[in-house]
Amino acid sequence: MSGRRSLVWLGLTPEPERELPASVAALRRPPVHPGTERRRVQRLILHGGQRGWLRYLAEVTDLVTSVADGTRHGDRAAALLAGEVILDHHHMLIGLPGTGYARTSRQREALETAVRRLRGPCDAPAAGPDAGPSPAPTPMPPAGERP
Q1: Residues ≥6 apart with Cβ < 8 Å to 108
Q2: Which residues fall in a compositionally biased region of kind Low complexity (predicted)?
Q3: 17, 43, 80, 124 — which has fewest CB within 10 A?
């Protein structure tokens, strides 16, 4: 490896490397075996660079947002997990040198919307400032009265 090639981005890959392959495999059409997706991720991490890694995450972001907006059939739970993992990754880019954080701003916005949709019921409108107050939380019984 070149001494000029930055490797700091690799510090952000453990969770996506562990969590994404099974979810992404389920979102692909036709679905692929999770091991196939895992090998692809490993190749990107071991032999690629940050640009290739961010291109892969952009591709997965497109899968997630398509499931969330209903333009693609797919496993909503897998899309939610992938969306949350990538969103966390993209938020952490702010701590790295370079333009990764700025380059992913549109993806972060799209993922925030997608994750919000995927967390809610399928046909419920998105909650907004005009949605009204949230219901009051149920108080917990005192410690001695808990089951």
Answers
A1: 87, 90, 91
A2: 121-131
A3: 124
Q: What is the tens place of the pLDDT at every residue in 34-64?
A: 999 999 999 998 898 888 999 999 999 999 9
> How far apart (Å, rounded) are the C-alpha atoms in residues 126 and 114?
10
Cβ(132)–Cβ(125) below 8 Å: no
Report how far residue 21's alpha carbon sits from residue 32's, in angstroms, rounded to the nearest whole number. 10
Contact 36, 84 (CB under 8 A): no
Question: Tens digit of pLDDT for each residue in 105-134?
Answer: 999 999 999 999 999 875 444 444 444 444
Beta strand segments in the chain, E? none
User: Any idea which residue has 């949350």 for tokens?
Assistant: 84
Q: Which helix (H) or strand (E) holds 20?
A: helix 14-27
Which residues lie below 8 Å from residue 80, measured CB to CB, with a gap of 6+? 115, 118, 119
